[in-house]
Amino acid sequence: MGASNNMQVVTTIEQLKTIVNDIKRQGKTIGLVPTMGYLHEGHLTLASTSKVENDFTVMSIFVNPTQFGPNEDFDSYPRDLERDTKLADSVGVDVIFAPSVEEMYPTNGGISIRAGRQSEILCGASRPGHFDGVLQVVAKLFHLAEPTRAYFGQKDAQQVAIIQTLVRDFNFPLTIRTVPIVREEDGLAKSSRNVYLSEEDRQQAPAIYEALQMAREHFLSSFHVEEAIELAQNHINQKTSGRIDYLQLLSYPDLAEITTETEQFLLATAVYIGKTRLIDNIIFSNKG
Amino acid sequence: MGASNNMQVVTTIEQLKTIVNDIKRQGKTIGLVPTMGYLHEGHLTLASTSKVENDFTVMSIFVNPTQFGPNEDFDSYPRDLERDTKLADSVGVDVIFAPSVEEMYPTNGGISIRAGRQSEILCGASRPGHFDGVLQVVAKLFHLAEPTRAYFGQKDAQQVAIIQTLVRDFNFPLTIRTVPIVREEDGLAKSSRNVYLSEEDRQQAPAIYEALQMAREHFLSSFHVEEAIELAQNHINQKTSGRIDYLQLLSYPDLAEITTETEQFLLATAVYIGKTRLIDNIIFSNKG
Q: Which residues are annotated as active site (chains A, B) (predicted)?
């Protein structure tokens, strides 16, 4: 474990299915770690967790065009398969599935999966169709890798909530596992997009997580949603040159307005620092 | 084979998953025969085919509300689980999965599967949302029964074409198998809905298949689409008191307009005889 284990890199569905069918025939469990590559510690934590919990770990590396909007960064999204391969091998991934766009989308009969009301808020409000694209590629990857467990970072809290709903309402035969946000020492959530930040922007960025922590504390002592949100907004506006896209407190995982019944809370934000959109969140309960 | 084999009838997802997981662990193949019950010879042929091709056969019996329109016959659709159980047992089905509506749809997070352009013609033109509902229940059943092969009757040609597209474009790990239309001695395609026909209507109904055969012969000798269609329409109008909903000649399985490139043809019709809507089709090639 940990050392090189003859990791394979495959690019075709046929190659992946041959491996998956062989593993399934042996009655072994499969962990799937779907990524868009340019791996950081967050991804490697997902893979390490899968390693511990499953006999065999598949990591997909695919920058999925259908989840990018027309004005988003599909073309400039960072890619480095050689580096990713070494990193994945170092944590014991058994196979990397790195298909081309043509391999994943050779045909289009017009059938689509539509994420519903959960996708119309938070990140979804400014990214119409994004979560439809996420569900499309996730459903395909689930069918291709046939995992026992699939691993997602809690950083994309809305994504996790929507994928959990897909698995539940469409009875996918697998379990979604989430791992906590991995942070830099100063609190900034790790992200592939952090490489876009200028030095100055990078120094301001930790204020995002500070703001979320302040809002959580205020909410838990006062139960006053608007005040908690305002406190966090002010902190971000004072400490950064960023523009807040949203900063919201919702029930989790329903992503609905909180009521006196709500037990789990999601405090989530997206902030443009320069041209870079950073997201962060805290999930917490009122049970202390 | 054929004799009683201790068929089980289960109504909960948990019971089905226990059986499926056990069969999969043994490395055995599973055939799934999705039905809405009130079994006739067509269904039994699907089950018998599954029996031959797989180690274990699951038949689902579920009248799926999400594929019925508001003015359709969901409430009056015939149901007889006791009779179905005996018939399924007689052809060697291993387990019947007969869930309640609540068991199949306990939650609704708002995610949907939308059948696209293939669903806007033929039966879909007069049944908005019908194929969305079909894909919803079929995706759920595929995930629940995890079949190696799933069996559908060619009678529902549009349904088969759309489900084939779902499996192809979303990489479901299974094969769709179709079996030919089973007919009465006078040519009428067997259907659960035939029990609705009055004696007079029943005597007229074979004209539908006669019309399709006439159109095929005319098309293959003349390659004149409009003439072939008109010939069939005239036959139905002269021989029955029915009203033609549609009668079309399309490419198969794309369900697009035929061109000089088309090799496989679908000649499909839906006719209201009295209040009963009957469908029939012929799939044929120009290779004789």
A: 43
ipTM comes to 0.90
Q: pLDDT (tens digit, 9 = 90+) per residue, B236-257?
A: 999 999 999 999 999 988 898 9
CA distances from A90 to A1, A34, A184, A188, A253 (A): 9, 17, 20, 24, 33
Q: Which of residues 15-34 of B touch A (CB under 8 A)?
A: 17, 25, 27
Q: Is B117 on the interface with A (CB under 8 A)?
A: yes
CATH value at residue B86: 3.40.50.620
How many domains is chain B partitioned into structurally?
A: 2
**What pLDDT, in 10s, does the model give residues B150-197?**
999 999 999 999 999 999 999 999 999 999 998 999 999 988 789 899
Residue at A69 is within a domain: yes
Final residue in a domain of this structure, among B126, B157, B179: B179
Cβ neighbours of B251 in A, within 8 Å: none
Please tell me the predicted confidence (pLDDT) of residue B1. Answer: 43
- Structure token digits, residue B142: 């595929």
Instruction: For residues B137 and B127, give the distance between their C-alpha atoms in angstroms, rounded to a whole number.
Output: 16
Nearest to A118 by CA among A249, A252, A216: A252
Q: Is residue B184 part of a domain?
A: no
Are A169 and B107 a contacting pair at CB < 8 A? Answer: yes
